[in-house]
Protein 1
Amino acid sequence: MDHEGGHAIGRSHCDAFSNRLYNFTGKGDMDPSLDPSYAAQLKKKCKPGDMTTVQDMVPGSATTFDINYFKLVVEKKGLFQSDDALLRNKETRDYVYSHVKVDAESSFFADFGVSMVRMGRVGVLTGKQGEIRKQCWKIN
């Protein structure tokens, strides 16, 4: 199984995760798996319908490539639903917990390297074989 921790760096627009804050099940509720204090911080910055404000994917280290992502996932402070989903499967949960240990950083970087090599083997689509998505989460 490949785990690359790609969310370890970067930012996201509020609209990419606002459903977790304001309308998780379609009833105006919050995702119960999200840490309430973290959700309150996000709500201060991201109002309903906000499509311009950005939030760090890993608060405090959005520009640093490190293992803090895994620590935040364990604390229920993952920005996306997919972050929380890592804790719902035994294999991925065990992997996440293995990266919150004191000496885990070297294995994280080794795993990331393996993942990047494997991603490099995925063929690139050219010409009319594929498309560049305007929004990464949906087909144009």
Note: The two ends are 29 Å apart (CA to CA).
Protein 2
Amino acid sequence: MKIFLALLLSAFSVCSTYANVNLPAIIGEHMVLQQNDTVTLWGWANPLEEITITPGWKAAPVKVTADHNATWRVQVPTPAAGGPYSLTFQGYNTIKFEDVLIGEVWLCSGQSNMEWTARAGIEGAEGAIREANYPEIRFFNVTKRTSAVPQLDLEGAWVVCTPQTMPDFSAVGYFFGRQLHKNLQRPVGLINSSWGGTPAEVWINPDALAQDPSLVAAARQLPKVPWGPEQPGLAYHAMIAPLIPYRLAGALWYQGEANTVVPEKYADLLPAMIRNWRTEWGQEFPFYYVQIAPYKYDRPLAGVLLRDAQRQAMATPRTGMVVISDIGNANDIHPRNKLDVGLRLAGWALNQTYGQAQVPYSGPLYRDMKVEGRKIRLYFDHAEKGLLAKGGALTHFEVAGEDRDFVPAQAKIDGNTVVVRASGVKKPVAVRFAWSNTAEPNLFNTDGLPASAFRTDHWEIDSK
């Protein structure tokens, strides 16, 4: 009996000595938790170890017991935006954070234009860096990693926004978050998980991709490149899965240039990825993305086909697309005006997510057409207050008859519609707008936001 008691006491001593209550990297000092919500906290501990979680904003502690796999998970309600608060995790050991904010949490992901920082070079970098002193904006940069299977954790840490930390965070993400913070007067947490040159396939769970054989086939066409992975799921497993189920207000996405290899499948691929993320998170969060800018791709229509696929992807509920055809650079795949990209993304969030109806958020989006003799009348969403042509007559419209031969067309604004015609086309049947890789058209709505490229036909096009 004495030997048994000694062994038992020894076991408890080992548990105390090697206490292992620990947390994923995304849960740490300086973090932001989603406000007015129920957030999930999780981690690891000894099997059957009881962990007491004490939020500084809630008097009653929350208790949870680690399971036989040494994991635990618990949900905790959060109040309205505020802080800083303390947050304590106590088992055999104690972890305490003193600088936890409650606010709005957004995930920023994609390829190089999302990853692009002020340090890499943006318009107005010096002034933006100098004034980037926002204690209630927090950054979390996910370190680049790949994996063939879902990972439990990743590398990264929350930091406070200062002139020292801002230059190394996504510039688009920062300008978006700054606009939300100023407008909502709430803390904002931004998680950047992006990788330059990566196709969308690497950011989706391969099991979700496999549900569409055509997407699997398209993924086989992706070329191997020296700057990043191309195999489906490699970034998802290492850089997205470990963030789940950290509660989000929404997600931002700036990607597509790497998918101009097979642009015609992007209209299915992007919605598949959105559905996958929402399913994995168990959250129908808003998803706002940036249409790729004009650029001289080596295949004649690869860029505009990708842009049109992005336009079509807006059929997915609770999505929004920012058009940047007026602020790109056809000679540089990395346009340096990141401020307006961030502000336009913020417009979608402020209007559609936060209910600020007075905030403009979208340029004209093609809705329908009507043949009127030798003319075609085009109808648009987001044109209720009217349309305008910047710099003179409308440009970049083409019309085709049944021969499918598109020719340049004259276009005129008529209220909130556009009427197009071409002298050589007696019976027009289709219109294309801004239909080239480098098109920088001049159709805007009266809010000053540009129209997206579009086509009214569904004729097969060879992007090669």
Note: Residues 379 and 417 are 5 Å apart (CA to CA).
Protein 3
Amino acid sequence: MDSQRIKDDDEAVRAALTSLKTATGIPVTMYATLLPDNRLQITQWVGLRTPALQNIIIEPGSGVGGRVVTTRRPVGVSDYTRANIISHENDRAIQDEGLHSIVAVPVIVNREIRGVLYVGVHSPVRLGDKVIEEVTMTARTLEQDLAVNSALRRVEGGKPGAAKSGRVMNGAEWEQVRSTHSKLRMLANRVEDELLRKELEQLCDQMVSPVRVKQSTKLSARELDVLSCVALGHTNVEAAEEMGIGAETVKSYLRSVMRKLGAHTRYEAVNAARRIGALP
């Protein structure tokens, strides 16, 4: 299982590096895996001219990668050896490779940093916002691929037939999920308010690791009626008119449903109900 896990994840990383180089034209793309002791190790690369950076270990907080792990945000420098926002323990390796400008972006799965995605150039040019956006988009896609690999392994490791419990999304639907996840992640990276950023990150997490709901949860017919109205976009007043009950009664049903499903909003409750098969 472990060898297959490593193989699947390595293939996803390799595809991301190749795709990124093709999309940007940047000569060097690299991926550093976050080790258990919080160090980074560059484990995959495309376009390196020398072995100076191959399999190099990066100490916690060191250089561009260390800053990315510390801040959980993209970091870019246009002149590595002179940049004052990073430490310089790795200057010798960078100089031996001849890299000048570097952009690095965190790869986060289920709120845990799995690694860092890098691009770099050997000439003294500034990597602009479009390149940073492309690296960020690629990192978000890689996050989704790694999360899917993890989810599939959980299913395969569970009871026989577990994979048959839900409908498999088609390609177009899955691409829409990926696109939305990517846009949310990029939006979170631009938000300065820490609490709001965490909320956005939690939404991203839920797209690949939904809140677990006990299968034994039972909703009454009236509770399902209210949820069905909410799923159609009805307000409490409109739902009350549709069902022939008072708006306060609708609120009471909704509070009960959210408590049972562990949801914080009416729309979370609808999604949770769909996940346990209570709604289509």
Note: The radius of gyration is 23 Å.
